[in-house]
Protein backbone atom coordinates (compact mmCIF):
# COMPACT_ATOMS: atom_id res chain seq x y z
CA UNK A 1 0.00 0.00 0.00
CA UNK A 2 1.39 3.36 -1.01
CA UNK A 3 2.08 5.86 1.76
CA UNK A 4 1.26 8.75 -0.55
CA UNK A 5 -2.32 9.59 -1.48
CA UNK A 6 -3.09 10.77 -5.02
CA UNK A 7 -5.66 13.35 -6.02
CA UNK A 8 -8.71 11.43 -7.24
CA UNK A 9 -8.95 12.91 -10.74
CA UNK A 10 -5.22 12.47 -11.39
CA UNK A 11 -5.31 8.92 -10.04
CA UNK A 12 -7.93 7.81 -12.55
CA UNK A 13 -6.62 9.90 -15.46
CA UNK A 14 -3.30 8.06 -15.14
CA UNK A 15 -4.95 4.64 -15.11
CA UNK A 16 -7.56 5.00 -17.84
CA UNK A 17 -5.80 2.69 -20.32
CA UNK A 18 -5.74 -0.28 -17.94
CA UNK A 19 -8.81 0.51 -15.86
CA UNK A 20 -11.37 -1.74 -17.56
CA UNK A 21 -9.07 -4.75 -17.73
CA UNK A 22 -8.18 -4.26 -14.05
CA UNK A 23 -11.83 -4.08 -13.01
CA UNK A 24 -12.77 -7.16 -15.03
CA UNK A 25 -9.74 -9.32 -14.24
CA UNK A 26 -8.62 -8.27 -10.77
CA UNK A 27 -11.76 -7.20 -8.91
CA UNK A 28 -13.53 -10.13 -7.31
CA UNK A 29 -16.99 -10.92 -8.77
CA UNK A 30 -16.96 -7.81 -10.99
CA UNK A 31 -18.48 -9.53 -14.02
CA UNK A 32 -21.33 -10.73 -11.84
CA UNK A 33 -22.04 -7.48 -10.04
CA UNK A 34 -21.93 -5.28 -13.16
CA UNK A 35 -24.51 -7.53 -14.84
CA UNK A 36 -26.64 -7.77 -11.70
CA UNK A 37 -26.59 -4.00 -11.24
CA UNK A 38 -27.78 -3.54 -14.81
CA UNK A 39 -30.64 -5.96 -14.21
CA UNK A 40 -32.09 -3.45 -11.72
CA UNK A 41 -32.53 -0.86 -14.49
CA UNK A 42 -35.83 -1.52 -16.32
CA UNK A 43 -36.37 -1.28 -20.07
CA UNK A 44 -38.70 1.67 -19.53
CA UNK A 45 -39.11 4.16 -22.36
CA UNK A 46 -37.56 7.60 -21.75
CA UNK A 47 -35.97 6.42 -18.49
CA UNK A 48 -33.73 9.08 -16.92
CA UNK A 49 -30.69 7.73 -15.09
CA UNK A 50 -28.11 9.59 -13.00
CA UNK A 51 -24.78 7.73 -12.84
CA UNK A 52 -22.36 8.99 -10.20
CA UNK A 53 -18.69 8.22 -10.81
CA UNK A 54 -19.55 6.73 -14.19
CA UNK A 55 -15.90 6.35 -15.21
CA UNK A 56 -15.52 4.58 -18.55
CA UNK A 57 -19.05 3.24 -18.28
CA UNK A 58 -18.60 -0.43 -17.38
CA UNK A 59 -22.06 -0.46 -15.80
CA UNK A 60 -23.50 1.42 -18.77
CA UNK A 61 -22.10 -1.20 -21.15
CA UNK A 62 -24.42 -3.68 -19.42
CA UNK A 63 -27.35 -1.28 -19.00
CA UNK A 64 -27.42 -0.40 -22.70
CA UNK A 65 -27.94 -4.09 -23.47
CA UNK A 66 -31.20 -3.91 -21.49
CA UNK A 67 -32.34 -0.38 -22.31
CA UNK A 68 -30.60 1.08 -25.33
CA UNK A 69 -32.62 4.31 -25.17
CA UNK A 70 -32.05 5.26 -21.53
CA UNK A 71 -31.07 8.91 -21.03
CA UNK A 72 -27.94 9.07 -18.88
CA UNK A 73 -26.44 11.94 -16.95
CA UNK A 74 -22.98 10.78 -15.93
CA UNK A 75 -20.68 12.63 -13.54
CA UNK A 76 -16.99 11.88 -13.00
CA UNK A 77 -13.85 13.70 -11.85
CA UNK A 78 -11.70 12.18 -14.59
CA UNK A 79 -11.87 13.83 -18.01
CA UNK A 80 -9.99 10.91 -19.58
CA UNK A 81 -12.50 8.40 -18.21
CA UNK A 82 -15.37 10.43 -19.67
CA UNK A 83 -13.61 10.66 -23.03
CA UNK A 84 -13.23 6.87 -23.08
CA UNK A 85 -16.90 6.40 -22.22
CA UNK A 86 -18.03 8.69 -25.04
CA UNK A 87 -15.66 7.00 -27.50
CA UNK A 88 -17.20 3.61 -26.69
CA UNK A 89 -20.76 4.87 -27.00
CA UNK A 90 -20.48 7.72 -29.50
CA UNK A 91 -23.60 6.44 -31.29
CA UNK A 92 -25.51 7.30 -28.12
CA UNK A 93 -24.26 10.88 -27.83
CA UNK A 94 -27.86 12.17 -27.81
CA UNK A 95 -28.55 10.01 -24.77
CA UNK A 96 -25.39 10.87 -22.83
CA UNK A 97 -24.94 14.05 -20.81
CA UNK A 98 -21.44 13.74 -19.36
CA UNK A 99 -20.25 16.19 -16.72
CA UNK A 100 -16.69 16.51 -15.44
CA UNK A 101 -16.73 17.40 -11.79
CA UNK A 102 -17.43 16.25 -8.25
CA UNK A 103 -20.91 14.89 -7.75
CA UNK A 104 -20.81 16.58 -4.35
CA UNK A 105 -20.62 19.96 -6.11
CA UNK A 106 -22.46 19.46 -9.41
CA UNK A 107 -26.02 20.78 -9.43
CA UNK A 108 -28.28 17.89 -10.45
CA UNK A 109 -30.78 20.39 -11.85
CA UNK A 110 -34.53 20.67 -11.43
CA UNK A 111 -35.46 17.71 -13.62
CA UNK A 112 -36.08 14.58 -11.57
CA UNK A 113 -34.48 11.20 -12.29
CA UNK A 114 -36.14 7.79 -12.32
CA UNK A 115 -33.04 6.13 -10.91
CA UNK A 116 -29.70 7.19 -9.46
CA UNK A 117 -26.78 4.79 -9.59
CA UNK A 118 -23.22 4.42 -8.38
CA UNK A 119 -20.84 1.52 -8.91
CA UNK A 120 -17.53 1.17 -7.07
CA UNK A 121 -17.16 4.86 -6.22
CA UNK A 122 -18.66 5.57 -2.78
CA UNK A 123 -15.96 3.77 -0.79
CA UNK A 124 -13.75 6.86 -0.64
CA UNK A 125 -15.81 9.09 1.64
CA UNK A 126 -16.64 9.64 5.30
CA UNK A 127 -19.99 8.81 6.83
CA UNK A 128 -20.86 12.50 7.00
CA UNK A 129 -19.97 13.09 3.36
CA UNK A 130 -22.07 10.12 2.30
CA UNK A 131 -25.17 11.21 4.22
CA UNK A 132 -24.94 14.69 2.68
CA UNK A 133 -24.67 13.21 -0.82
CA UNK A 134 -27.42 10.66 -0.26
CA UNK A 135 -29.79 13.42 0.87
CA UNK A 136 -28.97 15.28 -2.35
CA UNK A 137 -29.72 12.10 -4.32
CA UNK A 138 -32.98 11.59 -2.47
CA UNK A 139 -34.12 15.06 -3.50
CA UNK A 140 -33.29 14.55 -7.19
CA UNK A 141 -35.43 11.41 -7.59
CA UNK A 142 -39.04 11.11 -8.71
CA UNK A 143 -41.56 10.11 -6.05
CA UNK A 144 -41.28 6.45 -7.09
CA UNK A 145 -37.56 6.67 -7.84
CA UNK A 146 -34.77 4.68 -6.26
CA UNK A 147 -31.01 4.64 -5.83
CA UNK A 148 -28.80 1.64 -6.59
CA UNK A 149 -25.34 1.40 -5.05
CA UNK A 150 -22.83 -1.32 -5.84
CA UNK A 151 -19.68 -0.99 -3.81
CA UNK A 152 -16.92 -2.59 -1.80
CA UNK A 153 -17.85 -3.49 1.75
CA UNK A 154 -15.92 -4.05 4.97
CA UNK A 155 -16.58 -7.49 6.42
CA UNK A 156 -16.33 -6.34 10.04
CA UNK A 157 -16.43 -3.10 12.03
CA UNK A 158 -12.77 -3.47 12.97
CA UNK A 159 -11.88 -3.49 9.27
CA UNK A 160 -13.91 -0.35 8.57
CA UNK A 161 -12.32 1.38 11.56
CA UNK A 162 -8.85 0.46 10.31
CA UNK A 163 -9.46 1.87 6.80
CA UNK A 164 -10.79 5.17 8.13
CA UNK A 165 -7.93 5.49 10.63
CA UNK A 166 -5.38 4.86 7.89
CA UNK A 167 -7.01 7.45 5.63
CA UNK A 168 -6.91 9.99 8.44
CA UNK A 169 -3.26 9.16 9.21
CA UNK A 170 -2.10 9.48 5.61
CA UNK A 171 -3.95 12.75 5.06
CA UNK A 172 -2.38 14.20 8.19
CA UNK A 173 1.05 13.00 7.03
CA UNK A 174 0.64 14.86 3.70
CA UNK A 175 -1.06 17.88 5.24
CA UNK A 176 -4.27 17.24 3.29
CA UNK A 177 -7.21 19.16 4.72
CA UNK A 178 -9.63 19.25 1.78
CA UNK A 179 -10.30 17.70 -1.61
CA UNK A 180 -10.76 14.07 -2.63
CA UNK A 181 -7.87 11.63 -2.57
CA UNK A 182 -7.79 7.99 -3.53
CA UNK A 183 -7.95 5.65 -0.56
CA UNK A 184 -10.48 2.89 0.02
CA UNK A 185 -12.67 3.28 3.11
CA UNK A 186 -15.51 0.74 2.68
CA UNK A 187 -18.32 0.51 5.22
CA UNK A 188 -19.94 -2.56 6.70
CA UNK A 189 -23.29 -3.59 5.24
CA UNK A 190 -25.11 -2.44 8.37
CA UNK A 191 -23.46 0.97 8.45
CA UNK A 192 -24.04 1.50 4.74
CA UNK A 193 -27.75 0.78 5.06
CA UNK A 194 -28.04 3.05 8.09
CA UNK A 195 -26.40 5.98 6.25
CA UNK A 196 -28.98 5.68 3.48
CA UNK A 197 -31.79 5.68 6.02
CA UNK A 198 -30.34 8.73 7.76
CA UNK A 199 -30.43 10.55 4.41
CA UNK A 200 -34.18 10.02 4.17
CA UNK A 201 -34.67 6.89 2.06
CA UNK A 202 -37.82 5.12 3.22
CA UNK A 203 -36.86 1.56 2.32
CA UNK A 204 -33.26 0.32 2.14
CA UNK A 205 -32.52 -3.25 1.07
CA UNK A 206 -29.43 -5.37 0.65
CA UNK A 207 -30.14 -6.72 -2.82
CA UNK A 208 -27.15 -9.03 -3.12
CA UNK A 209 -23.87 -9.63 -1.33
CA UNK A 210 -20.67 -10.84 -2.92
CA UNK A 211 -17.37 -11.75 -1.31
CA UNK A 212 -16.06 -8.18 -1.11
CA UNK A 213 -18.91 -6.11 -2.53
CA UNK A 214 -22.64 -5.64 -2.17
CA UNK A 215 -25.58 -4.15 -4.06
CA UNK A 216 -28.02 -1.92 -2.16
CA UNK A 217 -31.37 -0.56 -3.32
CA UNK A 218 -32.79 2.51 -1.55
CA UNK A 219 -36.34 3.57 -2.39
CA UNK A 220 -37.45 7.17 -2.00
UniProtKB/TrEMBL annotation:
<dbReference type="GO" id="GO:0032259">
    <property type="term" value="P:methylation"/>
</dbReference>
<dbReference type="InterPro" id="IPR041698">
    <property type="entry name" value="Methyltransf_25"/>
</dbReference>
<dbReference type="InterPro" id="IPR029063">
    <property type="entry name" value="SAM-dependent_MTases_sf"/>
</dbReference>
<keyword id="KW-0808">Transferase</keyword>
<feature type="domain" description="Methyltransferase">
    <location>
        <begin position="50"/>
        <end position="145"/>
    </location>
</feature>
<keyword id="KW-0489">Methyltransferase</keyword>
<dbReference type="GO" id="GO:0008168">
    <property type="term" value="F:methyltransferase activity"/>
</dbReference>
<dbReference type="Pfam" id="PF13649">
    <property type="entry name" value="Methyltransf_25"/>
</dbReference>
<dbReference type="InterPro" id="IPR050447">
    <property type="entry name" value="Erg6_SMT_methyltransf"/>
</dbReference>
<protein>
    <submittedName>
        <fullName>Class I SAM-dependent methyltransferase</fullName>
        <ecNumber>2.1.1.-</ecNumber>
    </submittedName>
</protein>
